[in-house]
Specification:
By secondary structure, this protein is α+β, with helices and mostly antiparallel strands. Helix content is 36%, strand content 27%. The model is unreliable at 1-8, 204-213, 215-219, 226-234 and 246-255 (pLDDT under 50).
Length: 339
C-alpha cells in the first residue's frame, strides 16, 4: 500500500514545470511588492523544484528563519509557506524601509512589522494573479508570520503537511544594488501541488488549442483555383468611404443635451495638501503625531470633482462645520470638460 502512494505522488518533469509556473506567480508577487516598497528593480528566478519530506526539510534549516504562511481558498485550497533565512529577512525589511543594508542577522520588532506588511501585500498580489490565471475567485491571506527556528514550528508544519510529503521550490530574488540574492523557499503539500498541476496544465493545454486553431496546419494543401464557368460568387463592387472633415466648432460639443446629465452625482472633495512619507514614518505615527503638508497655511485649498481640480478657495466655518469659500474657479465649459 505505501508503494502505491509513493508512485501516485511521483511527479513527472511536465508536472514539475506546471508547479513551477504556479511558484513563478507567487515569487513574482514578492518581487513586485519589494520593488514597490524599495523603489529598486527586483527579479525572481526559480532554481530547483524537488519533492521532499517535512522531516528532511526541517533538518536542513538549523538557523533562525522567517516564515510566512499564505492560506488560499476558493479556486485553490491549501497553504503556501514562504521561508527565508533571518539574515535575508533583515535585508528585505531594510529595503522595504529604504534603509542602507546593515548586514545584520536578526530582525528587530520594527523589521517584523514591516515584513508582515510585505507578506500581506504578497498575499494580495497572489490573490489577483491566481484569480486572473485560473478564471475563478481565489483568496490568499497571511495566516501566520513568525521569526523562529523551523524545528519549533512543528505544529504549523504538521497542520499544513499532514502526510509528511512536500514539494519545495528554491528561488532567488535578485534586487537592484544588492550584491547577493535573497533566497526564498516556497513549500506546498502534494495535494496542493496536484491542484496546481491540474489547473496550470489545463491552462497551457487551452493556450495550445487556441494557438493550433489560429495557425493553419502545414499539411493543408493550397486551394485550387476555380475553373471558369464554375459556381463562383459574383464580385461585390467596393467603394471607398469618404468622411467629411470635422469643423473647428465640433470640438465644443453639443451643449443642448446637458440637461440630461444635471442629476448625475459626482464625488466632490477638498484637498488641504499632500506629502511623501517613508514606510518607517508611517509605522511611527501615533496619537498626537503632526504631519506637515506641502502647502502654506495662507495658500488656497483645492476643490476637486472626481479627482480633478476645478476651483480653489479658503476654508471657512459654517455652523460648526467646515466649508470653502470659492476664490478662483474654471468657467462652465472647462468644468464640464474636466469631468
Amino acid at each position: 500500500m505505501p508503494e502505491k502512494s509513493e508512485e501516485k505522488n511521483e511527479f513527472t518533469e511536465t508536472d514539475l514545470n506546471n508547479i513551477g509556473n504556479a511558484f513563478n506567480t507567487i515569487v513574482a508577487a514578492l518581487a513586485k511588492v519589494i520593488s514597490d516598497f524599495s523603489g529598486k528593480k527586483s527579479e525572481s528566478l526559480i532554481l530547483l523544484i524537488v519533492q521532499s519530506t517535512r522531516e528532511d526539510y526541517t533538518n536542513e534549516k538549523k538557523e533562525n528563519i522567517v516564515l510566512a504562511q499564505l492560506n488560499c481558498t476558493g479556486g485553490l485550497n491549501g497553504d503556501v509557506l514562504l521561508i527565508l533565512q533571518e539574515e535575508d529577512g533583515v535585508k528585505l525589511a531594510e529595503l522595504a524601509q529604504q534603509q542602507e543594508l546593515s548586514g545584520g542577522a536578526s530582525v528587530d520588532e520594527m523589521g517584523q512589522d514591516v515584513l508582515k506588511e510585505v507578506f500581506n501585500q504578497v498575499a494580495g498580489e497572489t490573490t489577483s494573479n491566481f484569480t486572473a490565471i485560473i478564471g475563478q475567485e481565489v483568496t490568499c491571506s497571511l495566516a501566520q508570520f513568525k521569526v523562529s527556528k523551523l524545528a519549533d514550528e512543528a505544529e504549523a508544519l504538521n497542520a499544513s503537511f499532514p502526510d509528511d510529503s512536500i514539494v519545495k521550490a528554491g528561488m532567488n530574488l535578485n534586487i537592484e544594488g544588492v550584491s547577493s540574492p535573497v533566497q526564498v523557499d516556497s513549500i506546498v503539500s502534494v495535494a496542493f501541488s496536484e491542484q496546481l498541476i491540474n489547473i496550470f496544465g489545463e491552462t497551457k493545454s487551452e493556450e495550445a488549442i487556441v494557438e493550433a486553431e489560429q495557425t493553419p496546419e502545414e499539411s493543408e494543401e493550397p486551394e485550387e483555383p476555380k475553373e471558369p464557368g464554375g459556381n463562383v460568387e459574383a464580385e461585390v463592387p467596393v467603394e471607398q468611404v469618404h468622411f467629411d472633415s470635422l469643423s473647428a466648432g465640433g470640438k465644443r460639443g453639443d451643449m443642448r443635451n446637458i440637461n440630461l446629465l444635471l442629476d448625475v452625482s459626482l464625488v466632490a472633495s477638498i484637498e488641504l495638501g499632500r506629502t511623501n512619507m517613508t514606510v518607517q514614518e508611517i509605522l511611527n505615527l501615533g496619537g498626537g503625531s503632526v504631519i506637515e503638508l506641502d502647502k502654506l497655511a495662507s495658500e488656497p485649498v483645492d476643490f476637486l470633482i472626481n479627482g480633478k481640480v476645478i476651483a480653489r478657495g479658503e476654508v471657512v466655518v459654517i455652523d460648526d462645520k467646515f466649508g470653502v469659500r470659492v476664490t478662483d474657479i474654471a468657467d462652465a465649459r472647462e468644468r464640464l470638460e474636466s469631468i
